[in-house]
Amino acid sequence: MIKLEKRPQPSRLWTYLAPLLAVVLTMIVGGILFSILGANPVEAIRTIFWDPLFNPQFAGYSRPQLLVKAGPLILIAIGLSIGFRAGIWNIGAEGQYIMGAICGAAAGLALYPSESVLIFPLMIVAGALGGWAWAMIPAVLKTRFGTNEILVSLMLVYVAENILASVSSGLLRNPDGMGFPGSRNFKQWEAGHNAELIANTGMHWGVVFAFIAVIGAYVMLTRHITGFHIRLTGEAPKAARFAGVNPARIVFLCLGLAGALAGLAGLFEVSGPAGQITIDFNSGYGFTAIIVAFLGRLHPVGILLAGLLMALTYIGGELAQLMLGVPGASIQLFQGMLLFFLLGVDVFTNYRIRIGTREVA
Amino acid sequence: MDLGAINPILLIASIMVSATPILLAAIGEMVVEKSGVLNLGVEGMMITGAVVAFAVAVNTGSPLLGFAAGAVGAAALSLSFGILTQLLMSNQVATGLGLTLVGLGLSSLIGKPYEGVKAPSLPRLDIPVLSDLPVVGRMLFSHDIMVYLSLLLVVAVWAFLKFTRAGLILRAVGESHDSAHALGYKVVRVRLLAILFGGACAGLGGAYLSLVRVPQWTEGITAGAGWIALAIVVFASWRAGRVAVGAYLFGGITVLQLNLQAAGAQVPVALLSASPYVITILVLVIISARGMHGAPASLGRSFHASN
Prior knowledge:
The complex is a heterodimer. Chain A is mainly alpha-helical. Chain A contains 15 helices and two strands. Chain B has one domain (3-118, 139-289): ABC transporter involved in vitamin B12 uptake, BtuC. Chains A and B meet through strand 1, helix 6, helix 7, helix 12 and helix 14 of A and helix 3, helix 4, helix 10 and helix 12 of B.
């Protein structure tokens, strides 16, 4: 008989091994999925994970895309992971991302066509504030009324999408756009453009901020009392209260930080790779970032690696769509499966398997 | 704006149609939560049910077979959540989110060939005498069988939880899984069954969306209906009757805002379209301000029988 036995301490080995095993399992099951869809499984997996980086035919285009896609994912996931550590489930990052983009873009476009160097910094601040303010709604409701932040933050995603639809064909519509929906293109306005910093690397300001966020989160979680309070609140809420940690402060901090980072990600995306506010410029990064946060074990360095891996599946997925005719939705399923396998394999971190009946001591 | 264009009889009738998918999903989720499991994957199960039901209904020409397939498909998907959370003790919040992501991906994968296809329609159920009543007949008794089935299901769940021994065990497991285990009840088995039931109900709800309410397959067809079902369970304080009230209130808001849009109300469209979500938030705030009455005590906690 197979039994699970709780480990006295989470296994360190399995903490590192679980994500790797989950990736391998996803590749195997993903391969089966691709072969059902009529593609050669080995070729499909190679196209997703290997070709974007090393195939000379595609690498020139794909490699820079890695940072472009990983930047927002890491930025959002870092913010989410801090909340998840404290047991605060903000799953509305997509909405905060949209609101950050709208506020940042609006702040910049209000000053069009000024060429001042202060425009872009102003947009960054406005983007962070937009995301922060959107995340403050669930924070205030949770601390003031005890409302569930999961449902509120998620509902606000749909509200944000409606606002996006409204402003992209109304308030922020390009006045020179001949009536087409969508704002002015930031790529054609130097003062507001989040341009590539080093040519052909995909490095833009959003990626710089993502790296800063990784370092900042690492220092806060491991070296600073606030990080300790956050972890304590998540692991032992009662102990945290006895230790004098103010739970409301933690809620505001975690949601605010996650909102601001998601807002930043939105602003950098809209002023750079996306170029303009359109009704569907958001591509679900806010939800994929949840997978990134868990795959990275809610640890800043892990999230950095997980963000790069997830970016690779986006790029490789597009490539597989193009080269092998694999449907785009299968990549979404692939990413979801990754989270599922990780959660399943994770049982070995906290439990060990015992075969046969245990003798009574 | 022309309020006269809104026909009250049709309004009530369409409220019943628009409330049914959420009602089905919410009553299933309520049973799941009563057993102490928080399954946040309702949205994913609903959309999977929607696409499976649509595909089967189109291929067989029978909407009823479609409904059955939708329920089975979503229940099968919910089993993955059950295995992860009950047997492998994974975090319920994270797994539920994962279930939604998997369901969304899976559904758009299955649904691609069915975009723009028309589904066979579910016939109206004519009830002798009642359907022929003036006004009331058109309003309440001219629907398809699923509308009545969903209401019957609410009554059945209420009776099951209140009067049967199995219902009592389910509630005991949800209130205190350790005590239930000590009494010899199979906590994991009870919860797995509840999860399957919740999955099947969410699948029926999704099937109603794609086969009756819309009736078409489009990507992201649920548009948050699963999350609203979750909110309605909280709103209902985990009581079957109030789940029905919540679902109908919500259906009312959705239909009313659509009617207002059609009547050309002087309110921005974005505000009207967002109103169901905003009102859900407001309702959640009002409910939570009064305190969380009736939440099962073991809700969301993993159970592991350590010897």
